[in-house]
Write a structure and sequence with these properties.
The complex is a heterodimer of chains A (about 350) and B (about 450). Chain A contains 16 helices and two strands. Chain A has about 350 residues and is mostly helical. Chain B starts with about 25 loop residues before the first strand and ends with a helix. In chain B, α1 crosses α4. In chain B, about 55% of the residues are buried. Chain B contains 14 helices and 17 strands. The chains are: A mainly alpha (about 350), B alpha/beta (about 450).
Chain lengths: ~350, ~450
């Protein structure tokens, strides 16, 4: 007879794995990727592909020659980081800058802490913010969306809705003036009127912005898939988005000429991408439900503060990274409810 | 239909795989030899009172439980004592056992071997407790806590309700299920005896909804037994945990570090209730029990009445022998059972089932880095943070292990079952609990 295996209980395993979780996130991002291909053309595929390949390469390289451990590139986490990094940059970004971003994401933000599960900050966001601070021109050169293969080259660029709004408000204009009359701009020596995207365009993603952040509908679709697969819970996205709506709603009620309505904040910029895909990153978000509610609240407040009063038009990346730093504190301060702790003997 | 009750924190739902649920209980043939360990219950080991060469009858006392928490052990067969020796038991350690060669099947005359139901309870409260102790009845759910101790409510406390554990939340196992179907009346009389012993007028039988036939059968039967009610529970592991069952059936939470009596409850397994019936009404000591033999690729699964001390091998033979690709044999269920390192070890009072796994089910998944998904925290039925306790234990920070309430852990294994990184969480938590136990003992010495 064969020798019997002896091990401690439990003797069965539920079958969930890091790989399954990571690939579920990858699948969830496919709708948003398709939308960006539709609006930004093959550049979107190029940027995403290079970002993913570079992330995989750097993880393999560091694991093999620096950490000298078993390869972890098949667990899917580098693919998730690669796609998220690509989603957070303009589709016109030069290839070498993307590769630098991948190196920072994987090399500094992830592998230097020990690889998957060990990173305190979201790797894709660290890479993104590094690029934004280092290459501000290339990182804010937003190609204008054009329906796929319509012949318009990617040389046509325009501002993001949030960036435009912030700039014009800074010139002393009112919200209604910007929205109704548009803004005269010179593009290639010709005068054009730039209009803020209308709500339908915002929802579908027909506006300037980072590659993967533009389509709120596609992002929500992927989010529902992740909820269904139990990869994320509702706590962080709902409190994050809820806080942004509440905070900007209060500001809007105070002065609608100075502060734009919450709906605009909701579906422009990186809020959906950040709240659904990046703030929910298991590794860098709190573990207890209570902690996740606090985390979402903090992300929401910081995002609005940066958007409205900060130097940058968009605050999602910074907000999440700042809250990432609070996660150990939140984890140690907010414990789950123990059994028998609150005795309720009815 | 109303919403099914269950416990409120955590839990998992592993595949049930109750292959032997339809197999009626059969009596396993007498073995040629039995090996009876003299420590078969929680508490102090019993003291052997027979010697090599002694002739013993079925039901004869062979080891006496002398401490308060310990239990009597009786011969399960008739024959000659071959030796008193250290023999490897299910734990994998060599422990003192009484080895008896079977010669015939001669029972002690005092035992009533008839199948007739004896429903009238004549024994007083004191007589019940004495009888349960004398007959060596222990908790048959697996913890083997001496049953007479549970009947003695500590001074200052009052039992209000007896909770019967018919949950059988472990996948694969069906022994309690079959017993509820086939011995319902005996079990219900046993419950009445326990109620009389505890001086309570209410008993609740908790049964998970995957045993609809048992729920229906007992619901029908309890009409004739005043004070006893059946509660259908949602299938959720580990509902058979004492504290989880009280929470599910009564909605009361036993405080951390306290016993169920704190909330007026006493929990007994349904199998124990049957053993109590046999002890008090039939004068029969605990010499056999129902054991499930099961596994995905066994040729025949089943439920057998097995004499205590019978080799696990005999059961496996009955199920068609170990398949070629067997990788692991577990005593008990897949979530909390114990892996055996060999199969010629004796069935004891706490053996509820024998489970045979194929090779590819036997190996653990290779662990990878924790990704802090917090799924272990979500499923922990005690509201603990398994990941944190395991990390502290791994780092040998045992004071922190204690501060994180590791001693509340019931070792149900839900955390490790659900972990996507396949971390050996419960291994580390067990190590941590063991070390904390040492810390606590050292502290009380000072």
């Amino acid at each position: 007879m064969n020798l019997l295996t002896v091990s401690g209980s439990p003797h069965v395993h539920g079958g969930n794995s890091t790989k399954k979780i990571m690939y579920a996130v990858v699948y969830a991002m496919i709708p948003a990727l398709l939308v960006s291909v539709y609006f930004f053309g093959l550049d979107a595929i190029k940027v995403t592909l290079i970002s993913v390949l570079a992330c995989l390469f750097f993880e393999w390289l560091i694991q093999k020659y620096l950490i000298k451990g078993p390869s972890t590139i098949t667990d899917g986490s580098a693919i998730v980081t690669g796609i998220l990094l690509a989603f957070n940059v303009p589709s016109s970004l030069p290839i070498w800058i993307i590769i630098v971003g991948a190196l920072v994401s994987i090399g500094i933000a992830k592998m230097s802490f020990g690889g998957v599960g060990k990173n305190p900050f979201n790797p894709a966001l660290v890479g993104r913010v590094f690029l934004l601070l280092s290459f501000p021109v290339q990182m804010t050169n937003w190609p204008k969306p054009s329906v796929l293969f319509s012949g318009i080259t990617d040389a046509v660029t325009g501002p993001t809705a949030l960036g435009h709004l912030k700039e014009e408000l800074g010139r002393g204009r009112t919200v209604s003036d910007i929205m109704e009359n548009g803004t005269k701009m010179f593009v290639d020596g010709q005068e054009v009127i730039y209009q803020l995207p209308d709500y339908m365009d915002q929802l579908l993603g027909n506006m300037g912005g980072s590659l993967g952040e533009v389509s709120a509908i596609a992002l929500i679709l992927g989010g529902l898939y992740m909820l269904f697969r139990k990869v994320i819970t509702w706590h962080i996205p709902v409190t994050y988005i809820g806080t942004v709506i509440a905070f900007t709603g209060i500001l809007y009620l105070i002065n609608p000429e100075q502060y734009i309505n919450p709906g605009f904040h909701l579906i422009t910029g990186g809020l959906m991408l950040g709240a659904i895909y990046m703030a929910t990153d298991m590794v860098s978000s709190p573990m207890s439900t209570k902690g996740q509610l606090i985390f979402g609240l903090g992300c929401g407040l910081l995002t609005v503060i940066i958007r409205v009063w900060g130097a940058y038009p968009e605050g999602v990346s910074f907000a999440i990274l700042i809250m990432n730093a609070f996660v150990p504190l939140i984890n140690s301060g907010l414990k789950p409810k123990r059994f028998g702790e609150v005795v309720n003997n009815g | 239909m109303s919403i099914l009750k269950t416990f409120k924190i955590g839990g998992v739902h592993p595949p049930e795989n109750k292959f032997s649920a339809g197999e009626a209980i059969k009596v396993l043939e007498l073995p040629k030899q039995v090996i009876i360990p003299i420590a078969q219950s929680l508490g102090a080991p019993s003291k052997a009172i027979v010697a090599k060469g002694d002739e013993v009858k079925v039901g004869q006392l062979i080891a006496k439980g002398e401490a308060f928490i310990s239990s009597n052990i009786h011969s399960s067969v008739s024959g000659k004592v071959l030796k008193l020796d250290d023999v490897m038991d299910q734990s994998g350690y060599r422990r003192p056992c009484i080895v008896i060669n079977v010669e015939s099947d001669e029972w002690e005359e005092s035992i009533d071997r008839s199948e007739d139901l004896k429903a009238e309870i004549t024994a007083s409260k004191e007589e019940i407790i004495k009888k349960v102790q004398e007959m060596g009845v222990v908790g048959l759910g697996g913890a083997t806590f001496p049953s007479h101790v549970k009947l003695m409510v500590p001074a200052g406390k009052k039992a209000e309700v007896l909770v019967l554990n018919g949950v059988e939340c472990e996948p694969y196992l069906t022994a309690d299920h079959r017993l509820m179907l086939e011995k319902a009346d005996e079990m219900l009389v046993g419950i009445q005896i326990l109620m009389k012993g505890l001086e309570v007028d209410r008993a609740v039988i908790g049964i998970e909804n995957n045993k609809a036939d048992a729920i229906a059968h007992l619901t029908q039967k309890v009409i004739n037994y005043p004070g006893i009610e059946v509660v259908a529970l949602k299938v959720q592991y580990p509902q058979g945990g004492e504290k989880q069952l009280i929470d599910a059936a009564l909605g009361r939470q036993v405080p951390s570090g306290k016993l169920p009596i704190e909330v007026g409850a006493v929990v007994n397994n349904v199998g124990t209730a049957f053993a109590v019936y046999e002890a008090v009404q039939k004068n029969k000591p605990l010499i056999d029990r129902v054991v499930t033999i099961t596994g995905k690729n066994l040729s025949a699964t089943g439920n057998y009445i097995v004499r205590i001390g019978t080799s696990v091998n005999e059961l496996i033979e009955k199920a068609g022998g170990l398949p070629e690709n067997t990788g692991k044999v577990v005593s008990g269920g897949p979530m909390m059972g114990k892996a055996l390192n060999k199969t010629d070890v004796p069935v004891v009072k706490g053996t509820s089932g024998v489970l045979v796994f194929e090779e590819d089910e036997a190996k653990r998944v290779e662990p990878s880095n924790c990704i802090r998904c917090a799924k272990c925290i979500t499923v922990c039925p005690m509201g603990l943070e398994p990941v944190l306790i395991a990390q502290y234990a791994e780092s040998e920070l045992y004071e922190n292990v204690e501060a994180e309430k590791a001693m509340d852990c019931i070792e149900c294994g839900s955390c490790q079952y659900t972990c996507p990184a396949a971390r050996p969480l419960l291994d580390y938590i067990r190590l941590g609990k063991f070390r904390v136990g040492q810390l606590i003992r050292n502290r009380s010495k000072k």
